[in-house]
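User: Could you go from structure to sequence for me? I need the amino acid at each position, not a summary. Structure tokens:
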């Protein structure tokens, strides 16, 4: 059973992330591609977000991933921009280029075009960079139109961070 990912649901999820980060005295940075800054927007919509949100980068192009986050061109060439290897490098690069304790990265194919048999529309790779240089990645395949895929991506990224903070 899939819950409705309304704007209100996403805002409540961001507020939960904020509460957890503040409770632990930690900061977050985001490196987004297919979501176009939506995660950062949700975070900064909250009053007082400067206490726990450090910065966000929209690295839509491969060049931006390389220049702003230090993703090696060879990694993009070998695995493709939508890959766990690139998501891991994006998250690690975001931590390196910020003062945050946690970083979220997302890179995917939101559609309606751009998919392939190996990576259909709805494929999204996630990276979470955690304290002590821990990197975790996942790949999900979401259904629906561009908006639905992006909403699912935002929710999964924030839920994944909540789960990792709680460990």
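Assistant: Here is the amino acid at each position, in order:
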């Amino acid at each position: 059973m899939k819950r409705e990912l309304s704007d209100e649901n996403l805002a409540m999820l961001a507020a939960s992330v904020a509460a957890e980060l503040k409770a632990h005295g930690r900061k977050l940075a985001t490196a987004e591609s297919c979501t176009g800054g939506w995660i950062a927007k949700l975070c900064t919509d909250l009053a007082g977000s400067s206490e726990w949100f450090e910065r966000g980068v929209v690295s839509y192009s491969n060049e931006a991933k390389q220049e702003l986050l230090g993703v090696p061109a060879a990694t993009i060439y070998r695995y493709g921009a939508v890959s766990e290897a690139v998501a891991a490098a994006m998250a690690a690069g975001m931590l390196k280029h910020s003062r945050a304790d946690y970083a979220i990265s997302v890179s995917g194919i939101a559609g309606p075009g751009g998919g392939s048999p190996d990576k259909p529309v709805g494929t999204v790779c996630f990276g979470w960079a955690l304290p002590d240089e821990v990197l975790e990645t996942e790949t999900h395949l979401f259904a629906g139109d561009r908006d639905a895929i992006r909403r699912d991506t935002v929710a999964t990224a924030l839920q994944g961070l909540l789960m990792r903070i709680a460990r």
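One structural detail worth keeping in mind: Residues 146-166 form the longest helix (21 residues).
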